[in-house]
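Tip: read the tokens left to right.
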């Protein structure tokens, strides 16, 4: 199954869940695939190609479905202190661009950790301090965005989503 799906295109990202429906109910003799081309919003022909790849190798009597990921928007805000020899606005723009790029590059099913935002900011030259980091208006570890759901029986966490940057405000 894996090789078949990976053969769809070089950038394919996917998560396969067996024995449950997409809604999280127990469903023997079924599996589903959440597939992404890296954009978070794959087109219909991509999803059809993934479905055809899965159908080509699935066992008889087993049903399968393919779904696009749910996009979880990340609205980021933070405040920086910059070194005296750096232009504050330029550094803020560099941090905002880096954070947006890194969020958009996380990939299918990868959690956006709140603590990672400040770590990325500190990699930009001229950043001395990062404060008031928020994701979607929330501070701390509770702000982290998780890309999984739990089955109704509580037995399995399965991938349904991808995080994409919506707005990054750095001041």
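Filled-in amino acids:
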């Amino acid at each position: 199954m894996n090789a078949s799906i990976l053969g769809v295109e070089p950038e394919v990202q996917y998560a396969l869940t067996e024995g449950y429906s997409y809604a999280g109910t127990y469903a023997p003799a079924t599996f589903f695939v959440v597939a992404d081309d890296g954009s978070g919003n794959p087109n219909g022909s991509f999803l059809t190609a993934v479905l055809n790849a899965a159908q080509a190798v699935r066992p008889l009597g087993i049903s399968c479905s393919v779904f696009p990921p749910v996009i979880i928007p990340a609205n980021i805000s933070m405040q920086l202190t910059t070194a005296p020899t750096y232009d504050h606005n330029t550094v803020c723009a560099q941090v905002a661009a880096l954070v947006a790029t890194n969020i958009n590059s996380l990939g299918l099913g990868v959690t956006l950790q709140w603590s990672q935002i400040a770590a990325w900011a500190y990699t930009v030259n001229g950043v001395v301090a990062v404060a008031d980091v928020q994701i979607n208006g929330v501070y701390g570890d509770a702000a982290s965005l998780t890309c999984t759901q739990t089955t109704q029986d509580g037995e399995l966490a399965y991938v349904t989503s991808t995080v994409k940057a919506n707005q990054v405000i750095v001041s």
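The two ends are 47 Å apart (CA to CA). The chain is about 25% helix and 35% strand.
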